[in-house]
Amino acid sequence: MARKCSVCEHDDLAEINSELASGEPLRTIADRWSVSKTELMRHRNYHLSVSAIMAKEVEEIAQANDFLDQITRSSGTHSVYPRQGRRGRGA
Ligand SMILES: [Zn+2]
Questions:
Q1: CB proximity list for 12: less than 8 A, separation 6 or greater
Q2: DSSP readout, 25-55?
Q3: Rounded to an integer, what distance in angstroms lies between the CA atom of residue 77 and that of residue 91?
Q4: pLDDT tens digits, residue range 20-37?
């Protein structure tokens, strides 16, 4: 975990990641960014999978939340507030 990954430290990490994610051949990517194929492979297995999946999940969760928010808003959130107002203690 503490070991540095030359791909993670690469200036163009985002580009490399997207190429890896899009299924470009390792040799092509390695060649293009002057990193070793072995490093790329290790990076893909141990680093990219996690960050790519996480990024995807975060995006999906955000979308889901957005969707829920829309449903909640359109289906009766407003009914909560009047009820709270009417049930004042001691009134
Ligand atoms: Zn890495």
A1: 33
A2: -HHHHHHHHT--HHHHHHIIIIIIHHHHHHH
A3: 24
A4: 888 899 999 999 999 999
Residue 16 CB partners (closer than 8 Å, separation 6+): 7, 10, 29, 33, 35, 40, 43
Segments making up each domain of the chain, as ranges: 13-74
What is the rounded CA–CA span in Å between residue 14 and residue 28? Answer: 16
Between the CA of 42 and the centroid of ligand 1 the distance, in Å, is 7
CA 22 / ligand 1 centre spacing (Å): 16
| pTM exceeding 0.85 | no
Model confidence pLDDT, tens digit, residues 40-64: 999 988 887 655 656 667 778 888 8
